[in-house]
Amino acid sequence: MTAVAVTVTVLLALAGGLTLTRIIRGPSVLDRAVATDVLLAIIVAAIATEAAYSRDATALPVLVVLAVLGFVGSVSVARFATRRNAR
Question: What is the pTM of this model?
Fold first, then answer.
């Protein structure tokens, strides 16, 4: 089980690093917004993985708040981008 946990941690860290690279080097605001949403999904996956590994359900409210925050943030950026392009 430890090998699986280490593998998952390494993969999530690699994905987070690549996503941070896209946030820094993204050519447009929408690319950065999508990368930020992906980074939030990676963070949610990491918290969920840790909760499953430790068999502790106290992180579930945090996961729900982060999921709602990601959804609201994505919708807000999409509305901002459509209004900006309409002008």
Answer: 0.86
